[in-house]
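Input set for joint prediction.
Command: fold jointly, output tokens.
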Amino acid sequence: MSRSQQQRRGNNQGRRPPAKKPGPIDIWRDPGALPDIEALVAAGEAGALLRSLGDPPMHDGSTATKYFTMVVQRAAVIAAALALSADLLATSDSDSGESR
Amino acid sequence: MTRDSQQLEAAIWSISEGRGSDDALALLRADEQMSLMLLDRLIIDAEDDLDSVRNLTGDERDQVVADFTDTLEGLRATAARLRPPPPPSIATTYIDDDLPITSEPWEPGEVQLQASWSAGQVVVWAAGRGAQPDGNDALATRLESIGGPSVGWQLHPSVPLPGGMRAEAVAIPLEDALGWLVAIAGGPEHEGIGGSVRWLGRAALEGVRLVASGSVLPNLKVGGRTENGVVDAAVTWVPALLDGAMVNTFAAAMPGAVVAVGGGNGRSTAIAVITAAVEAIVAESIERTELPSPPPAAKSAMDLDDTMIARMDGTPFRANVGLASALSRRLEQWSRSVTEPTRPRLVVQLDAPAPGGVWLATVSAPAPKGALVPLDAALRTEGGRRTLTPEWQRLGRLFPAIDRVGVSRRGQVAMSQDEAWEFMTVVAPTLSTAGFDVRLPALSRRKARPSLRLFAETPANSVVGAHQLSNVAWTVLFDDVELTADDVRRLARQARPLVQSRGKWIEVDRFDVQQAAAALASRENITQLTGAEILRHSMGLGGSGLAGGVVVQGTSWANDIVRAAGEVSMSPVTQPDGFKGALRTYQAEAVAWIGFLDATGLGGCLALDMGLGKTPTVLAHLARSAATGKTLVIAPAAVVGNWAAEAARFTPSLRVLVHHGASRASNGEFAAEIASADMVITTYATAVRDVEALAAGTWRTIVLDEAQAIKNPASDTSQQLRRIQATTRLALTGTPIENGLGDLWAILDYTNPGLVGSRPAFIAQMSGDGEDALRALNGLLLFRRTKTEPEVAAELPDKIDELDHCTMTPEQIGLYQAVLDDLVASVADSAVLGETKKGAILAAITALKQICNHPAAYRDDGQPLAGRSGKLARLEEIVESVFAAGERILVFTHFATWGRRLADHLTEVTGLPIACYDGSLSRGVRDKLVTDFQNATGPGAMVLSLKAGGTGLNLTAANHVVLYDRWWNPAVEDQARDRAWRIGQSRTVVSHRLVCPGTIDERVEEIVAGKRHIANVVLPRSSSLADLSNDQLRLALGLRPDELLEEEDQ
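tokens >
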């Protein structure tokens, strides 16, 4: 057993079966449809996740945050445009049920 | 990690290493969701480890790879024991030396487009089980036909299929196919597109979803090969807040074709596609972002940081290995709380306020079996502190109030209503975006609409009717929330007033609250109202100052009226007794509405659009109510004959008396004359003249047809007609607001004197355009239907023919008689014989027809046209109604010179340019007239000569046609009407034929109607025109006083 595995498993000492080839692939396998698509919601503040993490651990974290946020916000707009072009962007709903 | 999750992980390892007991499996199954989340994380780690160790070199490499492969297989097997088994394999083959593919019996399948994922590329091929796969040409055609990307494709090695076949393939980088794949994912199922294409589209869409919510973070990837302490590094962008359950769902639903080229399992493939989509979109974003220039070399920590920002697009750069590795680790630690698949998700819950009005926000941490524990308690445990602190810190950055000074327990804060609304509308969406589970009281962003509520209570045994006194109470409604004056005053003091409606919190506009307070204050002393006053309020005529008007509830005469009116449409009268004919749905409803008016003693305005059949509708009501009393119909002279004819047709059992003309009964005889009649029809002029006799009668119903005749309440006609009393006054008009709300007030004030209040107050309260007023009153004092309503249009025939009887002015009658006298005198001379006599008679016929049109049509004296012809007056009425409805009309005459005069006159009267299309115009001018007419919208008219414009033209912009004068051949008239009623016409075409009864005009009408042959008109016995005696000429062409409608009767 490699050292990394020993570290991962701690005190667990298991028997290792010999390595096997990957399982067979059924090329025509089609397990069925995915659940219905939920429309995409464009974030009101796409930089929220970045903001929640605080400045990145760099010498000028605030500058880095500024650039990262700029990129993320632009990317969010592009993503929303992609969704809109596929008619998958949620329109603003006046009401919201209790969110759970 | 909590103690529970540690126990679960230990159980996972024991089972995956083959030493797990039944108890261990039972433990996992007891908390399957958490166990699978842990397993998913461990599998991802194992996959990553395996990928890493495959890059190793040296003697131990094979053994290490085998170790990690073993670990991965064990974990996967454990996950498989917890998850439902996948569907059984059907066919297996080998796609390369390492990937065995099974083969079992199968039915040949359809060739479909398939997509496989391979090293960041989408490999596309087309095949079906047992079917010959597409070659590259067919594949290209197939891609084009379904809108695949037109560029970016490269040939790819063929894909091996079961049975030894191979499918030719092309490949495209994901970034070039992203839009197409997302469109496939969002579009409907498409024949010929296999599930693998849709699956890849859906996976890519999840990447798009993550980017759209900002769930993407930068990382620094450091290469493994160092050289003189320098290493290759590159910025990568990774998805965050990846939902492990979602990835599992994708893995379970992955078609085999997805991994037919690149191999891999469902989870790793789904994550790879999602990540690739994220990277593609971020790359596009960075392309549009101006980045600073990188320093020459990333040798210092500061330079490395600057280089990372400058190389955010992923361009590789060389950096000091120690610095790069350290930065990579720090960034990984910085983002770990949102990139780990098993991260704990804090729950932030806002509870509705307690009676004291304080809103409480609390934070909880997830616990095993879906339970929640207060954050403060969770943070007191060692495991909780380690796993929850990063999330707690993240929350604090976005929602500082949760940890503000004065908070006694971590994760619990009281908020004011103002803060609560701010939280619900601003902070909560941000927290959700950042990955927190936010739970709010139901919230409505819809603005609550205020209205005044009038609640009436009527004492028992009070007199029912408009004078009934009821006790009333006033409150305000914000949607369904009822507020007293005290409530409103309290709300007005709040900085951000909220009310709870239908279980949802709604913000109330402060201005509305102030208005509501003022409305209640001004009515504080109004504690009693009459039935009429309450009814006026229920129609919105009492004013409220609030956007939602007045809602009248409770018990009173007015409430009963409103309730009964609301039930009218639910009980249409489809087959009234005594009515011979079929009513359309809206007519049946209108009959029920007239019955409602009759039962309640109210009057009303039947405002069906022109052509919708007001006359038969009223007749249907009269047929079933004849026994209750007599009806007086007052109508323009032009339609008196039509009323009589329609009554004979639809209600033959009604005894109808037409009271007009010189031979009508005198005032003294009137009572006896009408004694046996059910319905008396007269003209406005006759009604005014004989008002004493009519007012002395007892009428159940008075019907005013074309009620715009009383739109001037000060006119003599309006004043005199008000003297005639009836239980129900019914006004008929297609244009109730022809000149504004004043017209409507005049009509309603006639039908229900005093009920709708004063004219200025009525106009002031009926805010908005006239149609708003019609909608507010519709169904109560007014019944409005238009041809543009789809349910009405659906029942209408393609075309409606109406016959309008027109009056003759004294000038017309005098001229007509003079021409006839001249003719008789000229042909009396026995010397005038044969063709000469015949020619004179034919010329006279033409002259008489022109006189019926207008004296100026016979001999243009250059004088103004207005007031000299009954036909022209009727045409003006029709044009006015058509224009009021915003529609367009064609007017045909077979006298071209008269047509031009007519066009000029109509231009002058209506203020709109109205052209005449006739043979004197050049082809180009005529074509332009037609084009302009067709392209224009809104009110418009064109006069056409029957000869030049009667055939060939397409004038479907018009849906009204007037045949101003008649032609002997009905086919010619049909052709004229068909200029509007033809292909391209989507509306009902209403055709008006104008006829002067008792003149040559009517005899033409008889011919057109097929009653008599042309010869019989002028020749009592078929012979020659020249054979006619003077008496015969007068009989054939002369005026018939008993049929003639004289202008003074109008």
